Amino acid sequence: MLLDPAKVRIWPGNARLYQHLTEDNCRELIDSIIAEGGQKVPAVVRRVEGDPDHDYEVIAGTRRHFSISWLRAHSYPDMMFVAQVAQLDDEAAFRLADLENRARKDVTDLERARNYAEALGAHYGSHLTRMAERLKLSKGWLSKMIKVAGIPDDIIEAFPSPGDVQLKPAYPLAQALDNHAAATTIHAEAARLATTQRERRAAGAPPIPAAEILKRLLDAPRVAVSEPKEEPFTWTTRYGRPALTVQSANRQGITIRFHAGSGADMETLATALRDTLEHLERRGMGLQQ
Questions:
Q1: Overall pTM surpassing 0.85 (yes/no)
Q2: Cβ(243)–Cβ(258) under 8 Å?
Q3: Which of 4, 60, 90, 106 makes an SS bond possible with 100, Cβ 3.0 to 4.6 Å?
Q4: How many domains does the chain have?
Q5: Are 241 and 262 in contact (CB under 8 A)?
């Protein structure tokens, strides 16, 4: 069947993220389609109802859909999307799409992991054993994929790209995040690394490699424990009595305790507060951080 790709949408249950497809990562397929005078391997689609803009949706063949769409917009307006129509429920569509994606090196581990995690609830009632049996996959391997799928986006941003988050090295990181104290330090380190990665990209410098990122994230809890704890800042009166103490200073704000019995009047306390805020600002811990 020959279709206008504009009338064919992408099934959201597919692992491949359509927004990540580009001319560059589809270049080989685009060139092949041009050389062969059209798309030779049909995609698999199913008919949709109730969508005035689309007649079909792609179950398998997302890159082919992108490539034909790109060619139609770039000097090949007569290129048609070749597809065969199948009658599939969502679970069968997922199995078909997964089977095709297993052979695709350009579908990342993270894309597949998150696709599996979504499908576990959507198609298999959150029963891992049932899902593993239907997909003919090892339950242990599938369990690890589901675990890696839970790594939050703010930690993924520390890596050069989502494609660098691979199952085997990322699984220990996913496990480490189960510990609340460790997770706090890992998130903080990830935020610092993500900022560094953005700065390096803006400067045209190569990103910090994924292996180094992973090491620093896994080491973050140990480093945090080994670092000497800084004493809280305390402002004292001329009589040596504490007037106020900084209890915490972070992105959420600054917590300050005013001590009773310091003997400080309102003017002195105002001076103490101003001196404390200026001290924190110099340390990069002020309200402007």
A1: no
A2: yes
A3: 60
A4: 4
A5: yes
In this structure, are 276 and 249 located in the same domain?
Answer: yes
The CA distance from 214 to 233, in Å, is: 34
For residues 159 and 136, what is the distance between their CA atoms, to the nearest angstrom?
31
Among 182, 165, 63, 44, smallest CA distance to 114 is for 165
Q: Which residues contact 254 (CB under 8 A, 6 or more apart)?
A: 246, 248, 277, 280, 285, 286, 287
**Looking at residues 152-175, what average pLDDT do you find?**
95
Pick the closest to residue 29 from 13, 16, 46, 47 (CA basis): 16
How far apart CA 49 and CA 54 sit, in angstroms, is 9
The residue type of 29 is: L
Question: Residue 146 is part of which domain span?
Answer: 108-150
133, pLDDT greater than 70: yes
Tens-place pLDDT, residues 247-258 = 888 777 889 999
Verify that 48 and 69 share a domain, yes or no.
yes
Neighbours of 266 (CB within 10 A): 7
Using CA atoms, how far apart are residues 144 and 162, in angstroms rounded to an integer?
Answer: 17
Give the DSSP H or E segment for 97: helix 90-102
